[in-house]
DNA sequence: TTCGGCGTAA
DNA sequence: TATAATTACGCCGAAG
């Protein structure tokens, strides 16, 4: 095998940066620093390095605007617009990137990147190197030679075309050098170089092919057919000669190839990580960490080190006695992290396999597989009292509490802290947070013991970082007073669960089955054939092909068959109404009867939902397995399901407490709108009041229809209204809807001003906040896509309202939980449904607990308007009667 | 296994 | 110019 020829990669920095800038959407950091060109440059150059594995790399840049070409021709590049202000600062960032990458760059006063590359390519070729030129500029094709190829970027950044001498011959029938003559004839609008009028690329190529070069063409101008071209060639001869000089890349620029100084060498990893982190190039951070792993060559199994910082080697404990001794010794320490590795995701059922502890300067592990949970819990109890740090405290606390430990509030929870810092992120697991906030890879997949130690160590380090960031962001109180204590509240709610009356559930299932069978028959009859009723696709064929009904609207994949469509079709064919009914019953049967049954824990006879604290972008909780926040209530048939939700045993009942109009009250408060505040203070029906204002009638004359419209407008306001959405909702024309909204804003001027201001501020800051300082970043506001941008604006309007409601009910939950724990331990909070709390309590406690709950919910935070809580109580979730004290 | 359509809640 | 009013979770069929 012949010895490998060394390879030199020359990069036209300006060209690649411009390409990247225009090819990519306007990416930016949370602070609004534009990074798309830097990002594109980084990925493009990395791709070239991976694909071609050069031995040497030099990135060349234009230096100043004025070059020798301006001396030849004043108007050179005279039509170029100013560099886009979004792009200009990115050049400095690219240079920082190159420094971190340990790559050579090159610029020389009075020369363009082209000239430097031309010169270096000649020198490289002369030295026997294989030279590759990375650029988006076709002008560089003139540099192609036997040892010089151009990597031409096509279609943005996605494709690279390797152009060599053969390729040019094939597409133009010319040698690379002759491309200069072609350009001299046709000119270059982008550089403001005039060509010969009437000569475009086709003619120019053909002429040069025929006569060899510009001078050859000019010498034979008389022979050229086409009188106009011939004439122009004569009159413009000198201009073409000038153009040729301008188009020629200078291969004699004052620059010398120094191979020792431009090796393709490993980067300064720390610097690259720091810069990527600063620019929020998360995907690239991961690539770098992977590269570091390989570079380091260490087997991750052999070390407990988190890359970049080393964790102390963990002490391996052999028994609970040793653990107890260690915990006694940790008495004075703050900042202890505790991790418990379980053998399954269901922490109400799982067993513990390993325990990890980490503190300042030390760590310890204990394999717990053979240990009685109660013994482990008892040993850990003293440690829990000093409020250790967890990742997902609820999981560990529920397990320990189940095992019999008395648990206290956590001292920290990295999952919750990470969520608060960016609630929109899709993941808040420990490895992801380490990557995001520490730029460290947390390697998993070891033995449970090592994982426990490593995760505890990582959680401890991570928590310091997160706590600092929370303080800077002004979310310390929200974190410590609301979210951290809430972990324990939610854990207790999940553990206790909601008791289910299985007989009622089974009975409903049987009834639904009967109904579905009858409906299925009827629909097959009307359709004239059997088909899968649950398949929208098959249904569409029946409705729109077989029965010839008119399609109403489309989905991405075909004609829609949703409820709104079926409602319209109901006038044309009896099958539509049957289908609506079928869908309703099928939903209830599959999701709510069959879906719930297997989730009822046979030991407790209860449903133990998961209340997820780190899912929603607004600060709300979510509920899953099962979702108990969307149990039907609007339609009677579905509502009856609630009969199956019962208290834990005789002598107990359910108490429901819900906030009345909490979102509109919050809107009144944060907007400061006088009219709305006054209405709430007078205790008026806000929808009726809104109707009176919008329709210009006295309160007493508001009709039910007027109130219904006003209610829809109020909802719309909270969601970030559009006339289109409102018109659809109310079945009115868009202009009528527009009119309603205008009249609304005329009466509630404070609301209008607030909604405008909140969007403007979000644009300024990059995020919106709630009353307790919860944040949501809104990068969509800066999208170049109009729809995405509008979405961002509606989110900016809605999130402070929805999020503040979440703040308030969460704070109330924490307070109520403490009060009940102390005063009415048999009374339990069991569910939260966004603006509503459900309790399972002894009948005897009803008067006291009802008062305590209502009072706490209404006065947990004082707004400019009163908060109103309505109470209901009863033997199940369906049969609730208003409760008066 | 994943995605789209659909439907339930606040 | 044409336009999904916010936030979630779960079931099913169809496509992979």
Describe this structure in words.
- Its EC number is 2.7.7.7.
- This is DNA polymerase I.
- Residues 638-845 form the DNA-directed DNA polymerase family A palm domain.
- By secondary structure, the protein is α/β, with parallel strands linked by helices.
- Among the domains are: 7-168 and 251-262, Rossmann fold; 312-462, Nucleotidyltransferase, domain 5; 499-607, Taq DNA Polymerase, Chain T, domain 4 (Up-down Bundle), CATH 1.20.1060; 666-798, DNA polymerase, domain 1, CATH 1.10.150.20.
- Helix content is 50%, strand content 12%.
- The chain has 34 helices and 25 strands.
- The chain has a six-stranded mixed beta sheet, with helices on both faces. Strands 22-23-19-24-25 form a five-stranded antiparallel beta sheet. Strands 7-10-9-8 form a four-stranded mixed beta sheet.
- Strand 20 (767-769) and strand 21 (775-777) form a beta hairpin.
- Helix 32 packs across helix 33.
- The protein is globular.
- The model is unreliable at 297-308 (pLDDT under 50).
- The protein binds a DNA duplex (10 and 16 nucleotides) through helix 22, helix 24, strand 17, helix 29 and helix 30.
């Amino acid at each position: 095998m012949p010895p490998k020829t060394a390879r030199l990669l020359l990069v036209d920095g300006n060209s690649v940066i411009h390409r990247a800038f225009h090819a990519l959407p306007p990416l930016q950091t949370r602070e609004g620093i534009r990074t798309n060109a830097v990002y594109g440059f980084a990925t493009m150059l990395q791709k070239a390095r991976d694909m071609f594995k050069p031995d040497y790399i030099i990135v060349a840049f234009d230096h100043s605007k004025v070059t020798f070409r301006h001396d030849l021709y004043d108007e050179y590049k005279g039509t170029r617009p100013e560099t886009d202000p979004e792009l200009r600062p990115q050049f400095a960032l690219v240079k920082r990137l190159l420094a971190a990458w340990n790559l050579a760059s090159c610029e020389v006063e009075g020369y363009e990147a082209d000239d430097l590359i031309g010169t270096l390519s000649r020198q490289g070729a002369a030295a026997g190197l294989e030279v590759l030129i990375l650029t988006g500029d076709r002008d560089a094709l003139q540099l192609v030679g036997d040892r010089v190829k151009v990597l031409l970027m096509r279609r943005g950044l996605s494709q690279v075309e390797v152009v060599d001498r053969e390729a040019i011959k094939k597409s133009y029938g010319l040698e690379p050098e002759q491309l200069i003559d072609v350009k001299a004839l046709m000119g270059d609008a982008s550089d403001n170089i005039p060509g010969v009028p009437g000569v475009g690329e086709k003619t120019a190529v053909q002429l040069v092919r025929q006569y060899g070069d510009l001078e050859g063409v000019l010498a034979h101008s008389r022979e050229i057919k086409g009188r106009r071209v011939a004439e122009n060639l004569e009159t413009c001869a000198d201009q073409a000669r000038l153009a040729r000089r301008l188009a020629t890349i200078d291969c004699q620029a004052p620059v010398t190839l120094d191979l020792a100084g431009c090796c393709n060498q490993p980067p300064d990893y720390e610097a690259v990580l720091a810069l990527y982190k600063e620019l929020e190039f998360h995907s690239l951070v991961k690539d770098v960490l992977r590269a570091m792993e390989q570079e380091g060559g260490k087997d991750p199994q052999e070390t407990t080190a988190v890359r970049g910082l080393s964790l102390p080697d963990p002490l391996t404990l052999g028994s609970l006695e040793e653990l107890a001794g260690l915990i006694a010794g940790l008495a004075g320490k703050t900042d202890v992290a505790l991790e418990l590795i379980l053998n399954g995701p269901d922490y109400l059922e799982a067993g513990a396999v390993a325990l990890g502890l980490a503190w300042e300067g030390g760590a310890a592990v204990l394999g717990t597989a053979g240990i009685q949970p109660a013994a482990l819990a008892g040993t850990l109890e003293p440690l829990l009292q000093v409020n250790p740090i967890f990742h997902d405290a609820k999981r560990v606390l529920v397990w320990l509490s189940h095992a019999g430990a008395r648990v206290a509030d956590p001292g920290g929870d990295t999952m919750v802290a990470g969520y608060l810092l960016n609630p929109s992120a899709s993941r808040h697991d420990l490895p992801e947070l380490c990557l995001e906030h520490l730029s460290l890879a947390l390697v998993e997949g070891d033995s449970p013991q090592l994982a426990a130690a490593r995760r505890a160590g990582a959680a401890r380090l991570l928590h310091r970082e997160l706590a600092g960031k929370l303080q800077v962001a002004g979310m310390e109180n929200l974190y410590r007073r609301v979210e951290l204590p809430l972990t324990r509240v939610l854990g207790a709610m999940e553990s206790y669960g909601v008791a289910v009356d299985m007989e009622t559930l089974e009975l409903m299932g049987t009834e639904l089955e009967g109904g579905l069978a009858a409906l299925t028959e009827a629909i097959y009859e009307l359709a004239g054939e059997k088909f899968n009723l649950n398949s929208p696709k098959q249904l569409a064929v029946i409705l729109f092909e077989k029965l010839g009904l008119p399609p109403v609207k489309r989905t991405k994949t075909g004609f829609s068959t949703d409820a709104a469509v079926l409602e319209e079709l109901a006038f044309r064919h009896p099958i539509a109404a049957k289908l609506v009914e079928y869908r309703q019953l099928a939903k209830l049967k599959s999701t709510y009867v069959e879906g719930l049954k297997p989730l009822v824990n046979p030991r407790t006879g209860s449903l133990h939902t998961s209340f997820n604290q780190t899912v929603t972008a607004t600060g709300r909780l979510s509920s899953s397995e099962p979702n108990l926040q969307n149990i039907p209530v609007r339609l009677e048939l579905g509502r009856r399901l609630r009969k199956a939700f019962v208290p834990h045993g005789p002598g107990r009942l359910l108490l429901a407490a819900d906030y009345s109009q909490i979102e509109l009250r919050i809107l009144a408060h944060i907007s400061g709108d006088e009219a709305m505040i006054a209405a709430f203070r007078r205790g008026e029906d806000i929808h009726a009041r809104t109707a009176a204002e919008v329709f210009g009638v006295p309160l007493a004359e508001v009709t039910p229809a007027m109130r219904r419209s006003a209610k829809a407008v109020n909802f719309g306001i909270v969601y970030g209204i559009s006339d289109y959405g409102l018109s659809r909702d109310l079945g009115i024309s868009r202009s009528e809807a527009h009119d309603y909204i205008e009249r609304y804003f005329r009466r509630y001027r404070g609301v209008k001003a607030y909604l405008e201001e909140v969007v403007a501020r979000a644009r300024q800051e990059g995020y919106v906040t709630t009353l307790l300082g919860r944040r949501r970043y809104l990068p969509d506001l800066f999208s170049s896509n109009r729809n995405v941008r509008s979405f961002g604006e509606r989110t900016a309007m809605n999130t402070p309202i929805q999020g503040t409601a979440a703040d308030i009910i969460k704070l109330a939950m924490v307070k109520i939980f403490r009060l009940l724990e102390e005063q009415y331990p048999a009374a339990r909070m069991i569910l939260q449904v966004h603006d509503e709390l459900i309790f399972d309590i002894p009948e005897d406690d009803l008067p006291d607990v009802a008062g305590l709950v209502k009072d706490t919910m209404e006065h947990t935070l004082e707004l400019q308007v009163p908060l109103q809580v309505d109470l209901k109580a009863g033997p199940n979730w369906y049969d609730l009667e208003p409760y008066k004290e």
